[in-house]
Design a protein that fits this description.
Cytidine Deaminase, domain 2; five-stranded antiparallel β-sheet; 416 residues; 15 helices; 17 strands; Dna Topoisomerase Vi A Subunit, Chain: A, domain 2; five-stranded mixed β-sheet
């Protein structure tokens, strides 16, 4: 990582390595640093206050994710005295979680830009950290033991990692992956016994082997929060997941009622579509915003590549897209269905969105596809392979490669 900060004001530079058992982003690391050091050393050494008053510079973070883990480096320019810098550096090593994931922040070195006593500062900071770890560790273990004892129930253990699982995991045709033991207990209360818990923030090898070697349908049932998003991204990297079910926004699976559990499982969506949504794309809103908020005033301009597009939408609906496809949108909308047409605009087959990919694989060709779901890169590639000319979906994910000759439209663009 570079050092693009003002060295004329900074006296020292704190460099630390980051290791996280999960998939996280830069904002997650910043939030962990601010949140877990707040109030630890008093107002004089609070990171937020130090940054506000200019005594530390902008936090520079480089982090990459691979195989379900994240690694990186953090660089903090500091204009404090030696003692305060050492204490601040040591406090960084007390951060042990990033979001829902366990983490380890290791002080690499403290560089003295003016060349004075760098080794003494680093050594002192590390010794302080070791003392804190020895003092805190027993308390953490006692809490974990108490929680484990309080959560007793008719749960089995599965695999080499001895993961909490429902008694029907091996005999059922489906596998439901949840985040923790409490989730398994709640689903068992609802009569769902084919569950297994990740039990932690890193997906264990047992889950990877179970999903990739089994031919069963795999559903991940996750919390409706940021932690659920991160675990979803990690699962998609290291395991095979077919469908995703989510708790309502802001809720956890362990606190859902039976009605909420059943509703969430009934509205499961294909995993690749869920991954597109947690990447920050809510396509129906995203399509409305540029058309209504940004492009509406522009028809008055004489140069019209931008303003001509929204004005042509009704014309496109009447002329470029056949009425048979427009009518089909009204029939399948909010029903999570998909319809495949031949070159004569006749319906070849109609199926659920979840079965669309499998259905396409069994066809020789398809001229047009209308689906009440998200158009993903995988679906675009499959449609192109079947020589399709038109693909209409409720929303479109991030499409990196658009084959020539394949039109891709959304319900919003067609006024539906």
């Amino acid at each position: 990582m570079g050092t693009d900060f003002d060295s004329s004001t900074a006296k020292y530079v704190i460099r630390a390595k980051i290791e996280v058992d999960g998939v996280v982003d830069k904002p997650d690391v910043v939030g962990a640093l601010f949140g877990q050091t707040e109030g630890l050393l008093g107002e004089d050494l609070d990171i937020r206050e130090l940054q506000r008053t200019g005594r530390i510079g902008r936090l520079q973070i480089a982090i990459t994710s691979k195989g379900g883990t994240s690694r990186g480096e953090i660089v903090i320019p500091v204009s404090l005295n030696k003692t305060a810098t050492a204490i601040l550096a040591a406090s960084i090593e007390t951060v042990d979680r990033v979001g829902p994931c366990t983490a380890k922040f290791t002080l690499e070195k403290v560089e003295d830009i003016r060349g004075a006593k760098r080794r003494k500062v680093v050594s002192r900071a590390i010794s302080i950290l070791k003392g804190w770890e020895e003092e805190i560790a027993p308390g953490a273990g006692e809490i974990t033991t108490a929680v484990t004892k309080a959560r007793k129930g008719p749960i089995t253990k599965y695999g080499a990692d001895k993961l909490p699982a429902g008694p029907e995991l091996t005999s059922s045709d489906e596998i439901i992956i949840v985040e923790g033991r409490a989730d398994v207990l709640n689903l068992m209360k609802c009569g769902i016994n084919n569950t297994i818990a990740v039990e932690g923030t890193r997906v264990p090898k047992t889950i990877t082997d179970l999903t990739r070697k089994s031919k069963k349908k795999v559903i991940a049932f996750l919390d409706g929060d940021r932690g659920g998003d991160l675990i979803l991204r990690e699962l998609m990297q290291v395991a095979r997941v077919d469908y995703i079910a989510r708790a309502p926004e802001g809720k956890e699976v362990e606190e859902l009622s039976r009605r909420e559990v059943m509703k969430a499982l009934q509205t499961q969506i294909p995993a690749d579509q869920a991954l597109a949504l947690v990447s920050g794309r809510k396509p129906r809103e995203a399509k409305k915003r540029p058309v209504k908020a940004k492009r509406e005033p522009k028809p008055r301009r004489t140069e019209a590549p931008v303003d001509r597009k929204p004005r042509r939408t009704p014309r496109m609906m009447r002329e470029s897209v056949d009425d048979v496809y427009i009518e089909k949108i009204g029939e399948i909308k909010e029903a999570f269905k998909a319809t495949i047409f031949d070159s004569k605009k006749k319906v070849i087959v109609e199926c659920g969105v979840a079965e669309l990919a499998k259905t396409l694989e069994g066809l020789d060709e398809a001229d047009a596809i209308v689906l009440d779901g998200v158009v993903t890169q995988r679906l675009v590639d499959m449609a192109s392979a079947k020589k399709a000319k038109l693909l209409i979906g409720a929303a479109v994910a991030d499409i990196e490669k658009r084959p020539p000759g394949l039109g891709i439209l959304t319900f919003d663009e067609l006024g539906q």
